[in-house]
Amino acid sequence: MSDSHLTINNRSENRQTAISDPSIDVSKGVMFLPWALLTGDFKMEEWCPVRRPVAKTAYEIATRFRRYSTREQITASAHVRRRQKQTRFNVTKQQGLVGSVVSTEHLEYDKDAIPDDFDYDEEDEGERSTELTNSQNIYLQACKMMNVLPNSIIIRNICLTTVDVRNQLMGSQGVRALCIALMNLANNNLGRKGVSPIAKAIPELDVVTSLNLSGNNLKENDGVIIRNLIEECRLLRVLNLSHNCFRETGGVEIGDAIGGYDSIEVLDLSWNHLRRNGAVAIARGIGNSNSLREVNLSWNGFHVDGGKEMGKALDKCSSLQVLDLSGNRIEESCLGDLMHGLKNNSTLNVLKLAHNPITTKGVHFLLQSLCNLSSTGITELDLGELSVEEQSLELLIVLTRGETS
């Protein structure tokens, strides 16, 4: 070994260290090590990072310092006495689930211990309303069904526009309960695995009236999930399935459901791929429904078959008030069927046919047909940016004045 080294002579009863060269260059990587560390006689001291090689960060040093500090070194701040009064949500025990949600609104505290600059409002101590909103009821029932404890932060903020649930450690079941309560699951790309358990849980709540599943990548074979949901959830009134991938099979499943069960009032199927048998089934379901008031089918592919079936549906449907067929490749050959369906329909108020391949001749035919109808409920006809001839303008003036035959 070279002269610049650290030698340790360890004997049974006489331990000593000797440094051959006292002028050791520390820059070369040589360290002085405490003898107590090598012999095991090291004792933890307060704020001694030199003799504490195990501590790696300032946080660990501070933590260990607190651990070995005496009780006199810890200065206690103002104490707050809290006693639980009548809580907003009592402790319940139902079906093996024990839930305790405590509201901090009724905590008793020592006002003398509060700093002078604390903003305290005496008026806030008054009686608060204990009546639960619909969203809170849904959340509590969903937690009971999922066998999880309700989160007090969610209960207090679920009626706001945003709910911050960071660092709440809710787990998968807790998240599902929250999703069921919010009922706005749009643009989450849940797919079949995510939507299926939610759809099974909703009928058991008996309080859900609106559901938004738009933009969740639901495909052809997922139509059976929506069908079962409509059949079992008889209180559901508003259903949004836009921006998904339903085509023929999915359209058949949904069409049969809305035609056989009179519960849905507002249905949004825009921006799907409904066509052929799927479009025909949806139109047939609308004709058989007695509850639908507003249907949005824009940006699908109803084309000729779907357009003609929709004409038959308008002849039978007596509840529909708003129908949006924009961007469905509706051709002029379908316009006759649509107008024929409006002859016996006095409830439809709004008909939207924008962004379809309809020429000026087709526009003139539409306006002329509306003028010839003895009774019609149409108050708004949306043709978008379609071209209109001068003769069509004259018919439009007649319609606006209400001078129909």
Describe the structure.
By secondary structure, this protein is of the alpha/beta class. The chain is built from 13 helices and eleven strands. It has helices at 35-39, 58-68, 134-146, 152-157, 171-182, 191-205, 223-232, 248-260, 276-288, 303-316, 332-342, 360-372, 390-401; strands at residues 6-10, 15-19, 89-94, 97-101, 210-212, 238-240, 266-268, 294-296, 322-324, 350-352, 380-382. The strands form three sheets. Strands 5-6-7-8-9-10-11 form a seven-stranded parallel beta sheet, with no helix packed on it. Strand 5, helix 7 (223-232) and strand 6 form a beta-alpha-beta unit. The model is unreliable at 1-30, 68-81, 83-111 and 117-127 (pLDDT under 50).
Give helix and strand order, one letter per element, not per position. EEHHEEHHHHEHEHEHEHEHEHEH
Strand content: 5-15%
Choose one word for the global shape: elongated
**Rounded to an integer, what's the Rg over CA atoms?**
37 Å
Which short descriptors sum up this protein?
elongated; disordered N terminus; 405 residues; two-stranded antiparallel sheet; alpha/beta; 13 helices; seven-stranded parallel beta sheet
What are the SSEs and their pairings?
Layout: E1 6-10, E2 15-19, H1 35-39, H2 58-68, E3 89-94, E4 97-101, H3 134-146, H4 152-157, H5 171-182, H6 191-205, E5 210-212, H7 223-232, E6 238-240, H8 248-260, E7 266-268, H9 276-288, E8 294-296, H10 303-316, E9 322-324, H11 332-342, E10 350-352, H12 360-372, E11 380-382, H13 390-401
Parallel strand pairs: 5-6, 6-7, 7-8, 8-9, 9-10, 10-11
Antiparallel strand pairs: 1-2, 3-4
Helix pairs in contact: 3-5, 6-7, 7-8, 8-9, 9-10, 10-11, 11-12, 12-13
